[in-house]
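Reproducibility note. Readers wishing to regenerate the assembly model reported in the main text can use the exact inputs given here. Chain order matters: entities are listed in the order in which they were concatenated for prediction.
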Amino acid sequence: MDPLAHASIGLMAKPIVPKAPLWTLLAVTQVPDLLSFAFMAVGIENGATTHLDFEHGLQYLSPASIYWSHGLLACLIWSLAVTVVAYHFLRDRRISVILGLLVFSHWLLDFIVYPNMPVLFRDKPTIGIGLITSAPGLIAGIVLEVFLIAAGTAIYWIYRKRMSLQARG
Ligand SMILES: [Zn+2]
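Running the prediction on these inputs yields the following structure tokens for the assembly.
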């Protein structure tokens, strides 16, 4: 899914953990993609060859190998790792757990849109709703992304408004 749609989940989390720096909330939602870039750079992972059009949706010409960055088990471990590291630095249980959950939100959104999220530390089996692999699904996926970005922005904007009103007394 689009980085902006992932980041919008971070915006939605800000009112729950007002003390957490916004950049950390946004950054952790990108963890699986950042890991994927790194793993591809060193040859551990391979991206899929895909074709995208409005007639067929997203079609896979060759499969991806992304179980280190986007596997279900791997993402649970990355989420836990981020929680532990965040707690080490911040000593705040609530913020640390939310940061870990935000890492996992990336997997959930990708699971909705893609058909082939790995489960374990190997290419098969894969799971995924694969929303965008059909023409109507692709439209629904775009609507979902726009909705998430709009909702995230609105929630954050309302939060900032309320904070500045409180500061003014
Ligand atoms: Zn991803």
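We highlight two features of this model. The pocket of zinc ion is lined by residues 32-33, 70, 106, 110 (CB under 6 Å). Strands lie at 49-53, 57-62, 117-118, 126-127.
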